[in-house]
TrEMBL record:
GO MF terms, alphabetically ordered: 4 iron, 4 sulfur cluster binding; adenylyl-sulfate reductase (thioredoxin) activity; metal ion binding; phosphoadenylyl-sulfate reductase (thioredoxin) activity
CDD domains: PAPS_reductase (cd23945)
UniProt source species: Thermomonospora cellulosilytica
Function of the molecule: Catalyzes the formation of sulfite from adenosine 5'-phosphosulfate (APS) using thioredoxin as an electron donor.
Entry protein name: Adenosine 5'-phosphosulfate reductase
Family: Belongs to the PAPS reductase family. CysH subfamily.
Amino acid sequence: MPPLTVLDSPTDRPVLDLRDVAESAAEALKDASALEIVRWAVATFGDRICLTSSMSDAALIHLVSTVKPGIDVLFVDTGYHFAETIGTRDAVEAVYPVNVINVTPSRTVEEQEAALGPRLYGRNPDLCCHLRKVEPLGRALEGYMAWFSGIRREETASRRERKVIEWDGKRGMVKVNPILNWTQQEMDDYISDNGILVNPLHHDGYPSIGCAPCTRRVAPGEDPRSGRWAGLGKSECGIHL
C-alpha cells in the first residue's frame, strides 16, 4: 500500500492540502477494509470528522463508534420522516456511544407550505430535497473537515464510480465512504453478526427509506430503490451528487 498522508494535528488546513489528502488516500485505500478506512480517517481528522445517517440502519454508526466513541452523528430531520425513522434515531442515541445531532431545515413544513404552497415534494421534488435535506446538511457540516457517508456502489448507477475517499468540492471538505464496496450480503451479515439496530420499515417492504410522502413499498423482485420518488424520474436527493 502506498504511504498515506496523515495530518499531524487536525486543524484548519488550506483547501489544496485537503484535496491532496483525499486524492492520495483514495488511491492508497481503494482496496482497504472498511475498518482500515475508518481508522485512517479518525487518525487524520480527529474531532473534525462527523458521520451522517438517514437512520435506515446503524451499521456505519456501530463501525465508526468502535474506533471513535462519541463521534457526532448528523441526522437531517426533514419534518416528513416516518415515525419509525424518528424512533430509530432515538434508539441509536440510547444504544450507541455517539452524539446524535438533529439537523433541521430553516423553515418548518408549515412555513414552507405557506411560502411555496402545499406538497412541494410532489410538484418540485428537487427543490424540496434541496431545502429540507441538502441545504440544512451543508450548514451542519461547516464546522468539520471531513464526513463519513454510508453510500454503497451497488445502490444506484450514480454511485458505481465513487471512491472510498473523495474530495467534496461542493462543501470544501473530504468525504469518506468506508462501506462503499460492501454488497448487500456483506451488509446483511454485518448487521446480523453485530446485532445492529435496523429501521423496522425494512421488514415491511421498504428496502430504501426516505421521507414518507416520497417513499413507497417495493414488491418482491423490484429494484430496492424503486420505491424512492416513484414515477418522478429521480433517484438521489442531492446530498451525494
